[in-house]
Amino acid sequence: MNSNLRAQYPDAPLRTSMQALHKPLEDLTYSAVGRWCLARHLNFPSIVRTQAKLRPSIETRLGLMEIGWFAAGCHRDQRHSVSRATFHSAFDTMRGETETKGNPPTEFNHCRSAHIDGLMDVATLLDRAFGGCTMVIHSTGTLEPGQEIVPEHLKTLVYFTPHMLVEYPELDAVVAKVNQIFIEEVAVRGAERWKAAAAARGWSMTGRPTRVIPPPDPRSPLLPPAEKDSCVFTIRGCAVGSLEEPLERIRQRFNAYKNTRHPVLSTPSRSSATPSACPASPTRQLVSSTPSRSSATPPARPTSPTPTSSTPLASPHPTTSHQDTSFEIFLEDSDEEDNDLLELYSDLIRSLQEEVEGLQEVITTLREEEMASREEMALQHSRELSQMHEELRRKDDEIRKLSRALSLKSKVSAEGSALNVPKMPEYKVKTSTPIKTTNSLHSLDSESDLSTSLGSVSANSALSLPKQLTNRSSPAPRLPLASPFRLPHIALPQRPETGYRSSDYVGIGPATCRFARQYDLGIHWADKFRRLSQQDASTWYRILAEELSVELAAEALLVLRDDLMNCPAEGQ
Fold first, then answer.
1. 541 and 457, same structural domain?
2. What pLDDT is attached to residue 190?
3. In the listed set 416, 438, 471, which residue is the last one of a domain according to the structure?
4. What is the residue range of 539's domain?
5. Do 344 and 440 fall within a single domain?
6. Domain check: are 75 and 105 in the same one?
7. CA 398, CA 339: separation in Å to the nearest integer?
8. Which whole number is the average pLDDT over 466-487?
9. Are the CB atoms for 136 and 120 separated by under 8 Å?
């Protein structure tokens, strides 16, 4: 189906063609395309079902009307002959005008399911409207891939008059037996023929089985429950001869029931009458009567020797008092047997009720245990959560205490630094940069010792060290304003009066670059050195001491001075 037709007829089958759209009504064939074209000819609303969103019941009725159009007169058209290993021409038409591939369910399977449902609906209506009995057995003839053609791998769809099964429970075994005979004798041959016809067309019927079909459960009923909301049975076949034993047991139980409940049907009459004296219809009435015989009204005794045809159990010979007494004894015995059987059933019902009550108690106990276990688990989880919350609160308290202790310790150490003068360790700084002092310029040796102090830096100022250079075990040294270990004052470098290049790059040079790389200070220190060089020189040392350690501040001051002193003049 091309895109233009799909756009014009969005609900048309996939195999719809322009030729099919122009076929006259009498030339339409049974297929998905034929049904759709028929709906267009007859103005059925099936072509707008998707848009109209009809109720499923109305759509089913319209579909059955379409099927009935093509099915009318098929059993009289004399077109039943089919060659061996071939399919009927209607099969080719259905398959040719119906999409067989794609997303399941395909149009082919959908048409087959709709036809089977319609067949079962017609059979059900036939029994309801005319009071007869109908049995429909259908086998598709197909098998699952890789399965052998044996009765246990085949299944049938069976319809039987529902009210007959309700009135006569023994018919379950009859329906199961008839269906098993059909599978063994008919469905197996139909599957073989279907496989041969498919092989003649080149279709592959081999392959690994998609699943393992379990054997039938011997405890399951002979007639399984019908499909949901339906009176159609899906019955899988049994192995040959496997139903003989259960059917024989059912037959024996029925005969025992008949002999126990109605001995007059299985033993000769106590009178001189022959067994054929009783007509067939009263016998059927006795067999199908209710189990209780206590309320049965005995036949009226004849007043004359002439046999009475209206009495079902009347003898054709003259009735005597001996015969009447025998019949009364039979009724009394039957009542006693009924009472015994009733007591037996009552005991059985009581025992079953006790078992049910015991099972209910077990279920109640299990539910209570489950609820108790759930409550215990909930309590345990709540206890664990409360413990976790308590632990978190305790940790928070400890953290707050440590924070307060650290703050107090820092305050105490800051206040006591003015009283206790620590001895500053000596640091060795390698440099060859001349340092300008108040007396003269001295050139420091590469191994000279340089002891520095904070100078004019406040004793309470906090010094921060880089993480990679800070020794956490020993606090940073703090010096008072006046220290006996102070070196001669280092004169801070002055910018040249002339030839100074005031550009963005002033304040950083080879010395500061080496210093930053040596101590891994980061590239952002270039901006810090530039900003520092643009500030007052008297603040350099304090700012460096706040950012670095005391010894690094002194070395940074030297390298910064070195870069500023070696800065070339503008125009060079």
1. yes
2. 94
3. 416
4. 428-565
5. no
6. yes
7. 87
8. 41
9. yes
Q: Do 506 and 530 form a contact (C-beta atoms < 8 A)?
A: yes
Under DSSP, the state recorded for 303 is: S
pLDDT tens figures, 534-557: 887 778 778 888 888 777 888 888
Tell which residue, 555, 556, 557, 550, has the closest CA to residue 453: 550
For 204-215, the DSSP string reads: ------SSPPPP
Q: Is residue 341 part of a domain?
A: yes
> Is the pLDDT assigned to residue 441 strictly greater than 80?
no
Q: Is residue 315 part of a domain?
A: no
Distance, in Å, from the CA atom of 285 to the CA atom of 376, rounded to the nearest integer, reads: 65
The percent of residues in the chain predicted with pLDDT above 90, rounded, is: 18
- Residues 6 or more apart whose CB falls under 8 angstroms from that of 15 comprise 1, 31, 32, 33, 96, 97, 98, 99, 107
Q: Which helix (H) or strand (E) holds 9?
A: none
Tell me the mean pLDDT in the region 260-284: 40
Mean pLDDT (the chain, rounded): 70
228: amino acid identity, one letter: K
For the record, the structure tokens of 162 come out as: 């529902």
Query: Quick one: which of 26, 22, 25 has its CA closest to 44?
Result: 25
pLDDT of residue 112: 92
Residues 6+ away with beta carbon under 8 Å from 183: 139, 151, 154, 156, 237
Q: Which residue, of 391, 416, 441, is where some domain finishes?
A: 416
Higher pLDDT among residues 56 and 179, named by residue = 179
**Is 296 inside any structural domain?**
no
Total-model pTM: 0.44
- Whether residue 259 is found in the same domain as residue 154: yes
Residue 1 resides in a domain? yes
Q: Which of 410, 452, 417, 411 is nearest to 435 (CA)?
A: 452
Domain count, the chain: 4
The answer to whether the beta carbons of residues 136 and 159 sit under 8 Å apart is: yes
